[in-house]
Design brief:
The protein has 220 residues and is of the alpha+beta class. It has 6 helices and 9 strands. The protein has one domain: Hypothetical Protein Pfu-838710-001 (Beta Barrel), CATH 2.40.320.10. The chain has an 8-stranded antiparallel beta barrel, surrounded by 5 helices.
Length: 220
């Protein structure tokens, strides 16, 4: 089970201000390319599951993941997650020919996709790029994302945690004390990608409004 604190930032100015404040705690930047797949009959999305290939271009690394049974409330996200490393060259081949994913015989994720969700054919949905800056702050690994979709850019703070209520308060207090507007994330980056439009934000510290996507899209 992956448990994360997730809050959205309103704009690039807030993102830059937060990045500057956290700069003494900086550890690394990850350039991520996320590509998604679904069953040919939408078996995964209809069951709120997401199959993703993530390429981390800064490290020539690729990860296959499956997320399922998501719940998000008040900025705390919980979801089942399985991850497996994959050869990046094979990952690229799977984008061009999605059937290659289902042909993997040593993957627990592929076996679950076929057995639990009844997937016999895959389609590539496309995806988006993400610039993730990672900080070691107050004993937490804070990830500040700049996510670039074809239709715009959004900004988010994530923190994987074993004590989400405590750590959410720490992050909220830091943002509020430094005058950085934010709002709890209501849907995932994947849901934003599928909607084709950026989310709407009413930030409690600024009152500024941005475009909105309906929460009825679901977390995934």
């Amino acid at each position: 089970m992956e448990v994360e604190v997730k809050v959205r930032l309103p704009d690039s100015t807030s993102h830059q201000k937060l990045s500057t404040l956290l700069s003494p705690f900086y550890t690394k930047t990850l350039l991520q390319e996320n590509v998604f797949f679904d069953g040919s009959d939408s078996q995964l999305s209809s069951n709120l599951a997401v199959l993703r290939l993530r390429f981390i271009t800064t490290a020539d690394h690729c990860v296959l993941s499956l997320k399922a049974k998501p719940v998000i409330s008040q900025g705390i996200s919980r979801a089942q997650e399985l991850e497996e490393p994959m050869d990046p060259t094979l990952g690229r081949a799977c984008i061009a020919e999605p059937w290659r994913l289902l042909s993997l015989t040593d993957s627990a994720i592929v076996e679950r996709v076929k057995q639990e969700f009844g997937v016999s054919g895959l389609v590539c949905l496309g995806g988006f790029r993400n610039v993730r800056s990672v900080y070691d702050w107050q004993g937490l690994k804070i990830e500040v994302d700049e996510t670039n979709f074809d239709f715009g850019t959004c900004y988010e703070v994530e923190c994987e945690t074993a004590d989400p209520e405590r750590d959410k308060k720490l992050i909220e207090r830091f943002l509020e004390e430094n005058g950085i507007g934010f709002e709890y994330s209501q849907v995932s980056k994947f849901a934003v990608f599928r909607s084709g439009k950026l989310p709407f934000l009413v930030c409690p510290t600024s009152g500024k409004k941005k475009k909105k996507i309906s929460s009825s899209l679901g977390y995934f």
